[in-house]
Amino acid sequence: MATSVEKTVTEASGRRDPVHQLDDFCNGNEAAALAARDIGFHLMGYFPITPSTEVAENLAEMQADGDHDIVMVPGDGEHGAAGICYGAALGGGRVLNVTSSQGLLYALEQLPVQAGTRAPMVLNVSTRTVSGPLDIRCDHSDLYFVLNTGWIILLAREPQAIYDLNFAAVRIGEHADVRLPVIVAYDGFVTSHQKRRLRTLDDAAAVREFLGPPGAPVTALDPTRPVTFGPYMNDPDLINNKVQLSEAMEAARRVIPEVLEELAGLTGRSYPIVDAYRMEGAEAALVLLNSAAETAKEVADRLRAEGKPVGVVSLNMLRPFPGQELRDLLRGVRAVLVGDRGDSYGAGNGNLALEVRAALQQDADNRTLVLNRIYGLGGKDFYDEDAEQFFTEALQAAALGSVETPFAYHGSYAGDAAKKPPPGLPAISAGEVSRGMAKVSEDEESGRLKVELEPLWAMTAVPCRVAPGHGGCPGCGIFPVLHQAYSVLEGDLVVLFQTGCAMVVTTGYPHTSHRITYIHNLFQNGAATMAGLVEMYLERMRRGELPGSPDITFMMVTGDGGMDIGMGPALGAANRNHRMIILEYDNQGYMNTGAQLSYATPLGHRTSTSGVGQAKTGKSFHHKDTAQIFAACHLPYVFTASEGYPEDFMRKVAKAQWYAKREGMVYGKVLAFCPLNWLTEDDAAEEVLQSAIDSCFFPLYEVEKGHTTVTYDPDIVDRRRPVADWLGQMGKTKHLLKPENSERLEGIEQEVDRRWRRLKIMHGHEGL
């Protein structure tokens, strides 16, 4: 529990008033959430991505308990979340977002728009390496991509700084001379997840006084003053807009120190533009960003005790770049080693080193030698011995008066030529899997397909294209889904997996569980990637360039919210009608990143971003019906299925392959069990899935050439059950059965019944 303390600030802060604060013990993401709560943002647009997701999770939990009233709007991807935030910022209120890595890049094109139209907001970035290949650990390669977007960038080395600098970010961005969006960046999995003592403000009046009221000069919400945001500008005009943006950034050079001084008066904690540690008389120094600087400071203390004149420089502000502060600080330093946690490939230096060099070059009296080392990529740890090596190299350069190796990677290593990569799994041949388990034929009268399956026991002889040894959770429904699909798919198969559980647990480098060609691309762009491969295959076949004329089926496996962030490219592929299968395992959330709400999550269900408490009762809107969405694209074949009805599923997969090889795209949605995040026993799949189907929450049907056929009707076999029976079997939904939630439960029952009745009407109509 947090404890109350009285904090009296120092004279240097310019304020002697006691500030009431609370002591807590939090990680960086929790600190960002607490800052958001205490600031009282109007709105947060967000999308989950590791390692920043905890911010939204913590805010959702606090919201469920009534601890804040920030409107939290889940985006369908980081690009959508950025658009939500931009629109909200144009409304004149205070706006928050948080992201990392590819999420930041996916939102990237929105960032210059927001800066160029001068719409302030705060974006917390938990820095993480940028793919490919996929890595979820820390470096600064994502942050470096936004250096030229016109956003102010503040840097936080530890959780307390994250908390404090969020307050500063609001004031700085809203200043009348600035009016720019602000990023607060901190190291993913280092600062984001490390627990530290934290002091939070407990004086609401003082916070209001510090922040002031939102003061947008114009908004999109004043009909009496119509205004145009983001107009088309001709060549002569745009340069003037960019001059104004540059002038705003220059104004921020003056405003930021002023705000940080006021912040020190409020909190008693000082954040200089450039943090100089043991720089008095330093002859060699390191320039490092964020958490690595804290490691280097401890080493500097030890080296100073040994009589070595070293120091550490770290920035609290990256944009605008503190060139003058660095020139003043480094003028007497003989050699400085700049560490970059990201490379500017082909430039001969990382971005930070390039800017330090450029800043020093403007000082005619400066003779500081500059070394650059790329370090810590992909979360590679930065230890005391690494910092000591950096100091050693800087001291050597200072002593010699020259630099032997100006640029190098630190921590990379040469492979052993005698050591070969581990052998991959043996390829599975088309002959091994082509066992004729499903015989497909066309019905002459209806034109639709008929499928005859071999007995299930016979299918056990078909080897699986995913080998044993994956890292899936006990009871995970993904692998029964894949095994059933693979049992009837004939011939060669190329698969693309979108980011999600199925991808992560089968491809941990340097190993793979796949015995067939496997592709992974960015979460949102799988369908477009597979579409390109399909069309290349067809064209190379037409030209006779593929020896043996391989007969390949192409299938994209999606799930874990992939039809949120990936919906646009998937619909594009559907409209173009490429010859491929999209198979969605529907586990009702973003399970790979910690069970956040997805558009696939049903109404009222508990997730880590749709909490249950005094003020909230789970997810606030209904799930997305992707099967009906894709049926509306007039695909040749769309189906729903469940791992609990294997014969029904496998018949549909056989049809899917037939259509994908002859007519165009197929979409299949399969209900897949997730005991970890549905909060059930590992072996409860049969009962839980059956209840979902018998309650008609997840109906089994197909849409073949525009005609809908229900393939399992619980009404006919007298197995219809209320939705409450299904909800009561999962820990994530038991709250819906409480008397106080009866209205919500009734609404769910009514909507499920409405969709089921509509489906049966379509089933009974030849044209639907």
Could you describe the 3D structure shown?
With 768 residues, this protein is α/β, with parallel strands linked by helices. Helix 1 crosses helix 2, helix 11 packs across helix 12 (351-361) and helix 16 (478-488) crosses helix 22.
Give a short overview.
With 768 residues, this protein is an alpha/beta fold.
User: Helix fraction?
Assistant: 25-40%
Oligomer: single chain
- The class by helix and strand makeup works out as alpha/beta
Please compute the radius of gyration using only Cα atoms. 29 Å
Going across the biggest sheet, name each strand in turn. Answer: 20-19-21-22-24-23-25-26
Main beta sheet strand tally, sense and closure? 8 strands, mixed
Q: What general form does the structure show? A: globular
Query: What is the arithmetic mean of pLDDT?
Result: 94
β-sheet strand percentage: 15-25%
Uncertain parts = 1-16
Terminal CA distance: 59 Å
- What is the count of DSSP helices, taking H or I runs of 4+ residues? 26
Number of strands: 26
